[in-house]
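Module 6 notes. Inverse folding takes a fixed backbone as the condition and produces residue identities as the prediction. Think of it as a translation problem where the source language is geometry and the target language is the twenty amino acids. Below is one complete input and output pair. Work through it position by position during the lab.
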């Protein structure tokens, strides 16, 4: 199939891997930010094609994984109220909170629906005027425009029974936090291609300049990823910093101006909590004051519910790239997709889920 198969051509993949091997003269640690890239790397065994000196570590670019425990607890509390309907993407239903998840809340009678877009949640509000419909608005810059459009449309229609429980994150502050850590070992980044379709590539320039760290925007297919790694290794070997775009067929340097405009119209930047990591300054979005009527936290007067993870879960270290999932003592034992201790084991973009699925030979046999 043209334009798909050419990015999955095994001969091209092996040729690029060979070029990386010939080029590499010293060890390099590279982080891919996006969970979708993590799954593609592991599913296609790309990390095993690279020379031993190239180590790939996995970053916090899975929005489900970094959604705080408190947000899940709030979602369950809302869904459990009489006369409410909570809509969420399907991969949020089994993310553990302090006491269970949305799937278990639904089994107890809560009206929890999974949707494919925030506009579906908006339609549910129109069709159920007797109910309070809340959309669990989770994501990075990629999903922010759609969620912002839903809020703006609800305001235009005066749809008072619709609101959003916002859990939105920004990629660059997380990268800065990783690079600022005293135990940081990341020397270069693969930028998340789908995020950059919205934001453009300019957001990485201050990071590359401040930390003398190269960033290469990458796609998701095997050829995309290895091509980006090749560019990154070339920059590292030559001591070049800056930002390069290896996903030019999709990403424009200026991003999507219309999407950025609706984000600015509806959201404001705020300090937010990342699950397993903690608060990162100016790293997320909240609704602007003029849209407070559609803010579920305010509408339902939801106070603080805490953010404690299960003490056995080391997902914070996984998300920061300090360990791989199989280094966690609970991986494949107490923590499995059937009984997850943390979000990365159940998310479709979670690193722990990827290791369990594609590196199952390292999982104890009793856990398979």
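Target side of the pair, the amino acids:
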């Amino acid at each position: 199939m043209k334009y798909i198969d050419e990015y999955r051509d095994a001969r091209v993949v092996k040729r690029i891997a060979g070029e990386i091997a010939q080029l590499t003269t010293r060890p390099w640690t590279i982080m891919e930010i996006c969970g979708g890239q993590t799954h593609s790397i592991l599913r296609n065994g790309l990390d095993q094609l690279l020379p031993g000196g190239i180590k790939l570590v996995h970053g916090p670019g899975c929005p489900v994984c970094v959604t705080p425990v408190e947000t899940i607890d709030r979602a369950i509390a809302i869904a459990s109220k009489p006369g409410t309907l909570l809509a969420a993407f399907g991969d949020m239903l089994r993310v553990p909170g302090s006491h269970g998840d949305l799937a278990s809340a639904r089994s107890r009678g809560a009206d929890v629906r999974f949707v494919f877009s925030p506009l579906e949640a908006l339609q549910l509000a129109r069709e159920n005027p007797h109910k309070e419909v809340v959309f669990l608005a989770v994501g990075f810059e990629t999903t922010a425009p759609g969620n912002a459009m839903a809020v703006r449309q609800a305001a235009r229609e005066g749809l008072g029974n619709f609101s959003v429980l916002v859990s939105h994150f920004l990629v660059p502050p997380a990268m800065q936090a990783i690079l600022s850590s005293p135990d940081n070992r990341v020397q270069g980044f693969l930028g998340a291609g789908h995020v950059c379709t919205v934001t453009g590539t300019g957001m990485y320039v201050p990071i590359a300049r401040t930390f003398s760290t190269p960033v290469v925007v990458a796609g998701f297919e095997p050829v995309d990823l290895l091509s980006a790694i090749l560019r990154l290794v070339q920059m590292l070997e030559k001591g070049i910093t800056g930002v390069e775009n290896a996903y030019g067929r999709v990403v424009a340097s200026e991003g999507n101006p219309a999407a950025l405009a609706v984000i600015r119209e509806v959201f404001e930047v705020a300090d937010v909590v990342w699950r397993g990591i903690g608060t990162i300054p100016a790293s997320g979005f909240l609704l602007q004051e003029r849209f407070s009527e559609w803010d579920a936290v305010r509408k339902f007067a939801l106070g603080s519910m805490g953010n404690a993870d299960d003490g056995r879960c080391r997902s914070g270290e996984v998300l920061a790239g300090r360990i791989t999932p199989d280094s966690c003592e609970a991986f494949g034992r107490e923590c499995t997709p059937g009984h997850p201790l943390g979000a990365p084991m159940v998310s479709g973009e979670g690193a722990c889920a990827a290791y369990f699925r594609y590196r199952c030979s390292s999982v104890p046999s009793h856990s398979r």
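Reference fact for the lab report: The longest helix spans residues 222-238.
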